[in-house]
Amino acid sequence: MAGETRLIEGERAHYLRSVLRLRAGARLIVFNGEGGEFDAEAIAVSRREVMVKVGSWCDREAESPLNIALGLGIAKGERMDWAVQKAVELGVHSIHPLETRYSNVRLKGDKRQLKHQHWVRIAVAACEQCGRNRIPRIFSPQPLSDWIPSQKGGVMLDPEGAPWSNLRHPQSELALLIGPEGGLSSEEIHLARDHGFVGSRLGPRILRVETAVVAALSVAQSQWGDC
User: Fold this and answer.
1) Domain 5-58 superfamily per CATH
2) Is the CB of residue 178 less than 8 Å from the CB of residue 95?
3) pTM of the prediction?
4) Over the stretch 43-60, which tens digit does the pLDDT of each residue have?
């Protein structure tokens, strides 16, 4: 790839030209989402396209040593978008949007695929912003009852759970379950516990879903990951 010229189009070209005000001769970093990155130079900038010349390879990594699979109850609109964006910035390895009993969002037909594509675009943009060069996998929405058995236990946010400081070190992997705006039902909590999930709380206050995502991931990375 080094020495090649590549054409950037669509949303990425618009971002470079209109938001970053990129001009010919500007230096930038390009990556393919699978790790590592290249130096590059913009050699032509037009209204809809940016042509770059790819330079030297850099084997830089920005991933957390803690592999976090975030199971997230689907929230409404911007709250879900914000949660996905911040989860990517905070180093999750994968995001699993979950259909739960108290979810206020019901995705059917083409809406499921369109919403999934939308979250993937958010994840890519978040990687560009925060300097990650591996794009976390964003899974298609699935029922919580299907996702829980696929995990080997984990941590779920529960206002009645134990303090976070009481949790055991999860070694290299952590499944983190966070419910939607309405929380998890008692049946869903029991199902998670039956499959090895431990309930934990983040203080005496009830957090919005997007706040809970940031708080829980920050604590997990501080204690077990990026510390």
Assistant:
1) Hypothetical PUA domain-like; domain 1 (2.40.240.20)
2) no
3) 0.88
4) 878 878 888 788 888 888
